[in-house]
Amino acid sequence: MTDEFAKLRKELARIGRASSNLLKLMTQFERLASNPLDNAYKMDDVLDKLGELIKNYSAEGIVSELQGWVDGSKARISRLKEQFRHEFGRKLQALLDTKGFKLENRYPNLRVGLYTINIDFLKGTATILFGHEALKGKISLSPGDIAEALERIEKGLNRSFEPQRFVDLVFEAYRRVCRIRDLPLGERVPIMEVLQQFVLLSQPQAFKVNPAKEHFRGYGRVNFGYDLYRLRKSGVKTSGDRVLGLVTATFDATKKRENFLWVPDDERGNGTTYSLLYFRET
Questions:
Q1: Domain range holding 28?
Q2: Which string of DSSP letters, residue by residue, matches 186-235?
Q3: Is the per-residue pLDDT at 62 higher than 60?
Q4: Are residues 69 and 113 in the same domain?
Q5: Looking at the domain assignment, is residue 204 inside a domain?
Q6: Residue 92 lies in a domain
Q7: Are residue 20 and residue 122 in the same domain, yes or no?
Q8: Are 39 and 31 in contact (CB under 8 A)?
Q9: Is 262 exposed, middle or buried (0-12, 13-18, 19+ CB in 10 A)?
């Protein structure tokens, strides 16, 4: 075989592979186009991939036609994305209303009671936050998926709650931290160290007998922050002859997550960041 033949064969093989990839992407686009409103972001992603392939596609005659189709489709997708944004907000509000959640604010941060839903239309995802804490990320921009995630989070936070038992356990956790740090009662201690001791104290008997993973009962910083908020709402604040107190975090304390805890102030999502906890005598 001549060098010219080998070069032609190599070029044809390259075009063949490129054609196969283009065809796969166009088939994918056609499938997504059966439901264009819900798939607007996915269709746009396929078009971006097609655009990159077309740049290196040198089959004479087809390039300009493909590029014209991509450009025209881009314009249509842009309009669909605007329509999607409008329809998405309306559908999400209607769905959350049926579940007892009130939606407020505007894109990109939607407020739902104690939670914030961050909407990223560029990535086509949503993130649910509790104060500074991201509870669930990379949720598809589906009103149903977001509402379902919000329900699961709400159910996980609203465990049974006995204010007096809770504050007594917090005091015992605080006392342990004071003992570890060789401090007298009444001194301020890091709130996250209190949480660590609280978790150990609140484990079931099965964990105390056999501290295996299957017996461990999870309880995170979001749970602690929410329960401190519920304690405040209950009006209970003393354990024996001592009153619980919290110290607002300084700017430096908020640089590392292990140094602070966010606690809601109300049902509208306002809250305060605390770094220290103490019990003073009444």
A1: 3-85
A2: TS-EEHHHHHHHHHHHT--HHHHHS--GGG-----HHHHHHHHHHHHHHT
A3: no
A4: no
A5: yes
A6: no
A7: no
A8: no
A9: buried
Q: Is the pLDDT of residue 9 over 90?
A: no
State whether the Cα torsion 217-222-227-228 is positive or negative: positive
Mean pLDDT, the chain, integer: 89
What is the count of structural domains for the chain? 3
pLDDT of residue 178: 98
Asked if 273 and 262 touch (Cβ cutoff 8 Å), the reply is yes
pLDDT at 147 over 90: yes
User: 274 and 171, same structural domain?
Assistant: yes
What's residue 202's pLDDT?
93
* Spatial separation of the C-alpha atoms in residues 60 and 142, rounded to whole Å: 42
Q: Residue 61: what pLDDT?
A: 47
Task: Examine the domain organization and report whether 132 and 147 are in the same domain.
Answer: yes
Decide if pLDDT at 44 tops 70. yes
Asked if residue 234 is part of any domain, the answer here is yes
Do residues 263 and 275 touch, judged by C-beta distance below 8 A?
A: no
3-state secondary structure of 176: helix
Using only C-alpha atoms, what is the Rg of the chain? 28
Q: Are residues 140 and 187 in the same domain?
A: no
pTM of the model: 0.72
* pLDDT score at 174: 98
| pLDDT tens figures, 182-209 | 999 999 999 999 999 999 999 999 988 9
> Residue 91: inside a domain, yes or no?
no
**What is the four-CA torsion angle of 65, 67, 71, 76, rounded to 10 degrees?**
60
Assess contact for 150 and 142: CB atoms under 8 A: no
